Amino acid sequence: MLTVENLEVVYEDVIQVLKGVSLQVPEGSVVALLGPNGAGKTTVLRAITGLLDVHRGRVTKGRVSLDGQDIQSLQAPQIVQAGIGQVMEGRRIFREFTVEENLKAGGHTASRADIAEGLERAYSMFPVLAERRKQTAGYLSGGEQQMLAIGRALMSKPRYLLLDEPSLGVAPKIVQQLRDLIVQINADGTSVLLVEQNATMALSIATHGYVLETGRVVMDKPADELRDDDDIREFYLGLRGDERGSLRDVKQYRRRKRWLS
Amino acid sequence: MEDLIASLVRGFGLGGLYALLGVSFVIIYRATGVINFATPALMILGAFFTGSFGNAVGLPFWLSVLLGMAVMAIIGMIIERVALRPMVGRPAFSAATVTVGIFIILLIVAGRLIGSELLTVNDPFGLNTIDVLGARLFTIDIARLVIALAAIAIVGLFLTRSRTGLAMRATAFDQETSLAQGINVGRMFGLSWGIAAAMAALAGALLTAGSSGVETTIALVALKALPVIILGGLDSIKGSVIAGLIIGVAESLTRTYQPEFAPWLGANFDVIVPYIIMIIVLMIRPYGLFGTKEVVRV
Lengths: 261, 298
Ligand SMILES: Nc1ncnc2c1ncn2[C@@H]1O[C@H](COP(=O)(O)OP(=O)(O)OP(=O)(O)O)[C@@H](O)[C@H]1O
Ligand SMILES: [Mg+2]
Known about the structure:
The complex is a heterodimer.
Chain A: E1 2-11, E2 15-25, E3 30-34, H1 41-49, E4 57-66, E5 69-70, H2 76-81, E6 84-87, H3 99-106, H4 112-125, H5 127-131, H6 142-154, E7 160-164, H7 172-187, E8 191-196, H8 199-205, E9 208-213, E10 216-222, H9 223-228, H10 230-237, H11 241-250
Parallel strand pairs in A: 3-8, 3-9, 6-7, 7-8
Antiparallel strand pairs in A: 1-2, 1-4, 4-5, 9-10
Chain B: H1 2-32, H2 39-56, H3 61-84, H4 92-114, E1 129-132, E2 135-138, H5 139-161, H6 163-173, H7 175-180, H8 185-208, H9 225-232, H10 237-261, H11 273-284
Antiparallel strand pairs in B: 1-2
The structure holds adenosine-5'-triphosphate and magnesium ion.
Magnesium ion binds next to helix 1 of chain A.
């Protein structure tokens, strides 16, 4: 079980973004984390995966643990080794690399045999990638890049996979594919924490959902109850994924990040 | 004709050295975004250690070169860990300034170590020559070119074929994403300094070889790498090689022919040729001839 307890996070030592967030991802589950822009969803993932440093952020209170073991003092590479993989917001593939090099980079912590096996699994899961293994990844379409990002994250054989808005800026048909894919990944034994603004998609596969607003969890319910909740209907399900998609495309990704100590 | 061949070969030898120095800059720049102004000092220290292994310990030239490179690689990694790592996340300009400080410190250290004697590396080349097509060529020039290209090729293979090389390139491209793949980004920074320092050391050894001794001030030759990286593009190894050779040959041809054809330019004009090329390049193609274009998403 992946557990976040009373987490508080501050950027630049002054901007408090998370104000006591608690959530749980039980083994084998798909958990959705919903919330509007700027709620702090990505920040939760950064806190779990040790990437706050890069953004001049810091956990000021609370705890992140994996099967009861504290992991918040670990460095990002150690957290990957502990079995937590992630697909970052905006895909973040290595655009200048080939498809295969991207996958291999994802297997950095894996053994040679696991890399070979992982490549095979990725190519059978994503036949499009198999056809383009020697192509420059930057020229793949948005949907293909998202699949590559997911394939890359799976290369380390994570027990927990964190996905940050995978449906962002991809066509509705691809969203459907991604949804099925997440179901399959989960069925293969990986627990999933799915950050989404596309609540319809997320709640259709999640077992449990959390709604985050301005750094606080404002709702914490089984997914089917959230699906029936009036507020959720109004605020999230009322909006169609594709309209949102076009708006979200404009969103600027934050400056190229640097790594702190 | 003999003059031309001799001049070209000397230029390629020089160009090999410049290419090595350019690659030394590029490796660090790509991995960390920092321009390493300490390169000249790394070079002269590398020559010193090579010379010590050769003269004082009496090891064969090849072995002392390899050991000199290894020692400098370790020193490079220590410098990165101690002086540059704390600068991560600060503007690249501040880190570049730190490298200027390191340059000064290392140069003073090198001056103390070497003392007032001339530096030699106990190499087998000396002033040996061979005659090819009637031209008298110095073997050291050929050795410089061949060894430099071989070393750069090994680095290139390491970067493109090995797992660690892939991780280094990933780090150069996107540090945060690399961390998320489990790549120890700090270690990659250290490694880039290690490789760069070893390349500079090799350049130092090859520069000192074939002479009857050099002074520490010759370290400033390493500044020729600046025109090289500006011509070749800061982030391109291939660019460094081509630019290094172009500049080496241009300098050598100037040295051979300028006194005869353009004596009014004065003595030692060849020394400033690389900088003139640099200024021209800066005016017409500020990103260099081979700087890679970014691959953008369609
Ligand atoms: N490096 C940073 N420095 C300062 N503030 C930051 C930084 N990163 C994020 N923030 C702020 O923290 C808040 C939460 O950001 P976060 O990216 O976690 O939100 P999010 O829920 O993922 O939003 P989105 O749906 O837009 O991705 C926002 O107000 C954002 O401006
Ligand atoms: Mg986000």
